[in-house]
C-alpha cells in the first residue's frame, strides 16, 4: 500500500467521495470515557468545505455528550470497495430553522414524527481536524484476486493497488 497525503481541494474531494459513498459511519462521542460511546449515523452530506452534516434528535445522548465535549471521531467503512475513512474533529449542534430547512431530507421523516417541524430536530456539523483514509485503486475484485493469487502461489503481494494517507483540509 502506498502513501498519498492530500491537501486542500484534493483532500476535500477525497473526503467527500469516501464519506458519501459509505453513507453511514460510527459516530463516536465522549472520547475520554471507556468504552467510547458509538452509534451508527447516516451522513446527510459532506459540503464543499469538508464539513460533514448529520440530522439528530436534540434529546439524544450524542447531543448531550457533544454539549459537554464537542470532540468526535467518525469511522466510515465501505467494505464493498475496500474504502475506509477516520475523521477526528469538532461537532457543532444547530437548532435554527434555516439550517434545518437547508439540511432536511425526506428520509429523516422516519425518525421525526412531525417531520422537519418536530421540535427535537437538530443538525450536527462536524469540522474535521485530523483525517486519514485507506482506499484501493483497483476496487474489491482486483484486490481479492491479487491477494488470492498471493495466497495460492506463496508470492507476497506488494499491495500496490492500495493507497492511504492524511487529508489536510
TrEMBL record:
SUPFAM superfamilies, per the entry: FMN-binding split barrel (SSF50475)
Boundaries of every General stress protein FMN-binding split barrel domain copy: 10-158
InterPro entries named in the record: Split_barrel_FMN-bd, Stress-Dev_Protein, YdaG_split_barrel_FMN-bd
Superkingdom field: Bacteria
PANTHER family: PROTEIN BLI-3
Protein name per Swiss-Prot or TrEMBL: Pyridoxamine 5'-phosphate oxidase family protein
Species name: Kaistella yananensis
